[in-house]
């Protein structure tokens, strides 16, 4: 596998651009996963596992697996018929398989090496998706419906058999989503397995298609603006949000946690882009002039099909963990008296040049060396008058949480110092995160008197 690490220039660009919710350059490492001279398509990823279509054996594609942890590529299914559109969850891989003449759905268990037919009924069955032991797919025995197979019980269930066409199913826990044409255009629908209720998600008269789901967030490709954009629906709040409406085309969405990825042709060729719901920041993942398409994401790993070598290969981008900022911390008062039952301690937090303390997520701040919990954020100022702004955070020592100030834990420290000494100095670390998730920490020393 070939690895390419982003340059210092890319790091500087990110620092400049992450301050505002605009497209920046994502920091991380790009890796070419497949090097076969054949073609690889439609990757899916779960943890260390990447699965994809591969036509190295003939023009009919097979299913292959690459294990990032071991650096090993393994054929999953090389039946002479065509296998396509794999999906993975945990140690289970599903795909569409044409060995019976029509499209069937098959399952492979990585742990046992066992292959199992899931649905081989006549007519085409395609676009399988999996979550846990639940597999969903498009079933054409009645002209395009959504079906579910439960591995644990071996039971098949019809989820939606409306007379119109349903396609592109996705699943998360008890929630199944798909594109539905019952209203004359493609809409996104949701079925809740727990309540056995169906819900229409989108009502716009344009087409909404290719949904993906993670937890309470549904994303899809939306044509309401005359071309493909990326939209999101929050199941909890029942609100819809436009994620990307750039004048170019954006489609083939995928989601993991707060991260949404898609393919985007704003640069004249398709690139992979990412949007972080937590920070509101959009970033470009790929910058090569060739065609990059069909992204999938798991955690900090993004995979896609890449044509930079002439034939389609599978590439991987691993998002770098934010570098921790070294903070300067000044604690006041700098002496605590246990007998006086001091109620609060205040931390004044300064950050390195280029980092704004106003961007600290004050609720994330912790005093983790003393048995103290809780916190009440305050304003940005300059307590020591050095011209460097700081954030003041006040921690409550008299919180209602039991053991918030454990006197026995503090008193035990006195056993480690000279007999008769009435104080002990303790190093205290204040830590937390910026609004964009970047961690920081700093240390100060506080004196505790009995």
UniProtKB/TrEMBL annotation:
InterPro entries: 6-blade_b-propeller_TolB-like (IPR011042), Beta_prop_Msarc (IPR027618). Signal peptide: none annotated. NCBIfam families: beta_prop_Msarc. This is Cell surface protein. It comes from Methanofollis liminatans DSM 4140. The lineage of its organism: Archaea, Methanobacteriati, Methanobacteriota, Stenosarchaea group, Methanomicrobia.
């Amino acid at each position: 596998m070939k690895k390419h690490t982003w340059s210092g220039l890319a790091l500087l660009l990110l620092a400049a651009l992450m301050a505002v919710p605009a497209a920046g350059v994502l920091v991380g490492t790009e890796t070419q996963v497949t090097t076969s001279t054949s073609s690889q398509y439609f990757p899916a990823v779960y943890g260390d596992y990447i699965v994809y279509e591969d036509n190295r054996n003939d023009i009919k594609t097979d299913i292959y697996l690459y294990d990032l942890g071991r650096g090993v590529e393994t054929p999953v299914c090389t039946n002479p018929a065509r296998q396509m559109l794999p999906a993975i969850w945990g140690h289970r891989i599903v795909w569409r398989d044409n060995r019976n003449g029509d499209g069937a759905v098959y399952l492979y268990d990585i742990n046992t090496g066992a292959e199992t037919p899931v649905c081989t009924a006549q007519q085409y069955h395609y676009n399988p998706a999996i979550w846990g032991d639940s597999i969903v797919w498009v079933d054409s025995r009645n002209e395009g419906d959504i079906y579910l197979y439960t591995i644990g019980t071996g039971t098949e269930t019809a989820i939606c058999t409306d007379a119109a066409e349903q396609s592109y199913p996705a699943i998360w826990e008890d929630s199944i989503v798909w594109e539905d044409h019952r209203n004359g255009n493609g809409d996104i629908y949701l079925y809740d397995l727990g309540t056995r209720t169906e819900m229409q998600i989108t009502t716009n008269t344009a087409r909404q298609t290719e949904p993906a789901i993670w937890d309470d967030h549904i994303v899809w490709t939306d044509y309401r603006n005359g071309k493909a954009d990326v939209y999101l629906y929050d199941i909890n709040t029942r609100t819809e949000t436009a994620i990307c409406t750039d004048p170019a085309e954006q489609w083939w969405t995928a989601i993991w946690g707060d991260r949404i990825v898609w393919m985007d042709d704003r640069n004249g060729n398709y690139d992979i882009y990412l949007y972080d719901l937590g920070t509101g920041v959009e970033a470009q993942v790929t910058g090569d002039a060739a065609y990059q398409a069909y992204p999938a994401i798991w955690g900090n790993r993004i995979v896609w099909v890449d044509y930079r070598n002439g034939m389609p290969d599978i590439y991987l981008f691993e998002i770098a963990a934010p570098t921790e900022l070294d903070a300067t911390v000044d604690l006041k008062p700098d002496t605590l008296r246990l007998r006086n039952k001091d109620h609060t301690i205040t931390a004044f937090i300064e950050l390195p040049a280029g980092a704004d303390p106003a961007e600290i997520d004050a609720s994330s701040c912790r005093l983790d060396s003393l048995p103290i919990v809780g916190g009440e954020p305050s304003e940005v100022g300059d307590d020591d008058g050095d011209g460097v702004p700081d954030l003041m955070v006040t921690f409550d020592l008299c919180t209602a949480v039991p053991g918030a100030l454990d006197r026995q834990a503090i008193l035990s420290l006195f056993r480690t110092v000279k007999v008769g000494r009435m104080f002990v100095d303790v190093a205290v670390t204040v830590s937390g995160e910026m609004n964009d998730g970047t961690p920081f920490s700093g240390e100060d020393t506080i004196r505790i008197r009995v």
